[in-house]
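Hello again,

I reread your note about wanting to compare the complex against the isolated chains. To keep things tidy I'm splitting this into two emails, and this first one only covers the full assembly. Below are the input lines as submitted, including protein chains and any nucleic acid or small-molecule components. They are followed by the predicted structure of everything together. The single-chain runs will come separately.
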Amino acid sequence: MHRMQNRVEGAGIAIQMRGVRHAYDNAVSVLDGLDFETPAGQFLAILGPSGCGKSTLLRLIAGLDRPRSGSIHAAVRSSGIAYVFQDAHLLPWRSALQNVALPLELMHVPRGRRADAARSALEQVGLSDAMDRFPNQLSGGMRMRVSLARAMVTRPKLLLLDEPFAALDELTRERLDEQLRDLWRASGMTVIFVTHSTTEAAFLAERAIVLSARPARIVEDRAIALPPDRAGAIRATPPFVAEVRALYGALERGEP
Amino acid sequence: MRASGSLTSRILPPVLVLAGVLVIWDLYVRVTHTPDFLLPMPTAVIRSLFTDRRLLSSLGWTALAALSGFVASGVFGVLIAIALSASPILRRAFFPYTLFFQTVPIVAIAPMLLFWLTPGLEPVVLCAFIVSVFPVIANTLAGLMATDPALIDLFRLYGARPLAGLWKLRLPSALPGIFTGLRIAAGLSVIGTIVAEFLVGQIVGEVGLGVRVVGGIHDSHMDEVFAAAILASLLGLAMFGAVNLAAHLTLRRWHASER
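Full-complex prediction:
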């Protein structure tokens, strides 16, 4: 069936950043010359204190803003990028299904294909029963899952997430983390996940880049030494705790 | 606007108040022997309401003018707001002048409109429009400008055309504001119509409710004046109610104001 996809077709894209600097209009420097590369298909967590410029970095990668200097190379058209915000940001006048179909609608995908793709994206995040509900009839966690399904419906090659589950309770957040990791493993897309939580970064990512306080520079760039199969229980194991400690230490080093 | 309690318990109190007012009014006129050219008996007003056929045709004229002015306000108010929302320069240049619509003394303008336009329906509709368009512009503009910036980014990310952004995002976001504007415009368009009829109608001899008010005072037929005023209020109420119903049907699925 056309809605099923194999890993190769959905494979992610590589990103190169060279000397990326950015400042706001009032000349406050936000990013202070960032250099890094992400190979295709990597799950990268970007960790840093609040207000350090993580969201700015994500907006630059998405092409929503342009850097003051430096270059960002992502071998993908903007339609191959999906973005998940801190809150669900759904259209309140549309049902869950219509919300998920929105990106395809904007990209002029024919109606029938839209509905099929939206339905299967909602199934992927476990919301088969809530397709016709409106956002105000959904819990915070369900709204976020609709938002995730909306991002996945275009089968992005690059998924950008900006502290997407920060406003949810711990249990819901862990469930969503697990779901997101499954989605990543099934699709082979590149994921860049911005967070200020060391445990979330360690659980999700293959690699974590830790940024300093503003203006942000890279304090630490480490591979997360955990197996690819991660169940929720891994959070209690010594290797996991060691990763969290290492990330925490890096965060502390980045303090002004 | 939420329904609470049974139908009877919602309808009974205002009906009792109305009955009480009518009784006190009736008693006052009887006891003080007020002549009916100063204050008519309520029964005389009610008789006028139900027996005066000309009042109905007056209501028709006024309703036509007020509705036309209201529809024009809705259409042009939203279009003007969309244009103003499109660019900060346009907004800075023109928004101060839209305030003119709110502050213009319609009583001073109406005779000029009469002078410039063919006396008849048009100047009356134009008055209704001028009086009622500003709230539509202001509330629609506020709604359009309050569109969630994250969603605007999302539309950009997927390469949405400007028209798709307007139709699928900004206009729906502005709907609660548009309805707020229309609610205010519904009442104002009736007021604008009546005021215009005071001045315009006398000359043309078309008999809207405003003309009947002036004529009734002139001829000392106070029952006619009261009946015309009541019909004008009912017209405004009916238009307000229609906007409320439309707002409820449109927004009930998703907006907090209608749940």
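For quick reference: DSSP finds seven helices and nine strands in chain A.

B.
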